[in-house]
Amino acid sequence: AQTVTQSQPEMSVQEAETVTLSCTYDTSESNYYLFWYKQPPSRQMILVIRQEAYKQQNATENRFSVNFQKAAKSFSLKISDSQLGDTAMYFCAFMKAPVNYGQNFVFGPGTRLSVLP
Amino acid sequence: DAGVTQSPTHLIKTRGQQVTLRCSPKSGHDTVSWYQQALGQGPQFIFQYYEEEERQRGNFPDRFSGHQFPNYSSELNVNALLLGDSALYLCASSLMGGGYGYTFGSGTRLTVV
C-alpha cells in the first residue's frame, strides 16, 4: 500500500516571497505519478502540478515548481512570488501508473498555506 | 464546458438514516470516483465506477454503495449513518484510457447529527 506524508500542517508566507511545502511518500511501485492539488474555500480540488516518476527533470508550471527526489521518495512544492490567491489547503497525492486505467489517488493530510499581505 | 456537478451542496442527516449523493461527470468523461474527506484530513478513496460497474474499492464498509447510470452520472449511497460519516464527499470524473485528466466537483458536505 502507498502512503503520503505531509509534515507541515500549517505554513504562512508573506506576499511576493517564496515558500516550500514538503511531501514524502512510500511505495514499492517503480512507475507512478505525483501531484500537488490546491483546495481553496470553494472546496474544489485544483491541479497545481504533476510529475511522472520516470522523468528526472523536475516539473514547473509558472510560479510553481517541484523538487522530486525519487531515491529519497520526496516531492516538495516551491511557490515563488506568492500571491494572496495562493491561500488554500495543499495536498500531495500519489497515483500508480498508468494513470486513468482504474487507478485512484492516495492523498496526504494536507498543508494549510496562508499568504499574508 | 460543464465541469463536475454534485448535489446537494450541503446535507444534514440523523444517525441511522440513509443518504444518497449525486454526481454528474464532466462532459466527455465516463469514469466516476468518490472520495471522503473528513475535516482537516486528505480525501480517502471510496470506490470507482466505469461502465456501470464498481471497478475498484477502498477500505470502506459495505454500508457505502454506489451506482452508475448509462449517462455516466453516479450516486453514492450510505446506509445506517454514523456520526463518523460526517465529511465532505468529493466526486472526480475522468476518461478511462484517456490519459491524465481528472476533474473534481466541489463536493457535498454531509453532517450526521
Protein model, in words:
By secondary structure, chain A is mainly β. Chain A is built from no helices and twelve strands. Chain A has strands spanning about 5, 10-15, 20, 25, 30-40, 45-50, 60, 65-70, 75-80, 90-95, 105, 110-115. In chain A, strands 2, 5, 6, 10, 11 and 12 form a six-stranded mixed beta sheet that branches. Chain A has a four-stranded antiparallel beta sheet with strand order 3-9-8-7, with no helix packed on it. A two-stranded antiparallel sheet of chain A has the order 1-4. In chain A, a hairpin with a 6-residue loop joins β5 (about 30-40) and β6 (about 45-50). The radius of gyration of chain A is 14 Å and the shape is globular. The mean pLDDT of chain A is about 95. In chain B, β9 and β10 (about 105) form a beta hairpin. Chain B has no helices and eleven strands. Chain B has strands spanning about 5, 10-15, 20-25, 30-35, 45-50, 55, 65-70, 75-80, 85-95, 105, 110. With about 110 residues, chain B is mostly beta strands. In chain B, the strands form two sheets. In chain B, strands 2, 4, 5, 6, 9, 10 and 11 form a seven-stranded mixed beta sheet that branches. The mean pLDDT of chain B is about 95. Classes of the chains: A mainly beta (about 120), B mainly beta (about 110). The interface of A and B includes residues 99, 101, 104, 106 and 108 of A.
Summarize the structure.
Chain A has 117 residues and is mainly beta. In chain A, 0% of the residues lie in helices and 51% in strands.
Task: Note the main attributes of this structure.
heterodimer; A: 117 residues; mainly beta; four-stranded antiparallel beta sheet; 0% helix; globular; B: 113 residues; seven-stranded mixed beta sheet; 11 strands; 50% strand
How do the helices and strands line up, and which of them pair or pack?
The complex is a heterodimer of chains A (117) and B (113).
Chain A: E1 3-5, E2 10-14, E3 19-21, E4 24-26, E5 32-39, E6 46-52, E7 60-61, E8 64-69, E9 74-79, E10 88-96, E11 106-107, E12 111-116
Parallel strand pairs in A: 2-12
Antiparallel strand pairs in A: 1-4, 3-9, 5-6, 5-10, 7-8, 8-9, 10-11, 10-12
Chain B: E1 5-7, E2 10-13, E3 19-24, E4 31-37, E5 44-50, E6 53-57, E7 64-68, E8 74-78, E9 87-94, E10 103-104, E11 108-112
Parallel strand pairs in B: 2-11
Antiparallel strand pairs in B: 1-3, 3-8, 4-5, 4-9, 5-6, 7-8, 9-10, 9-11
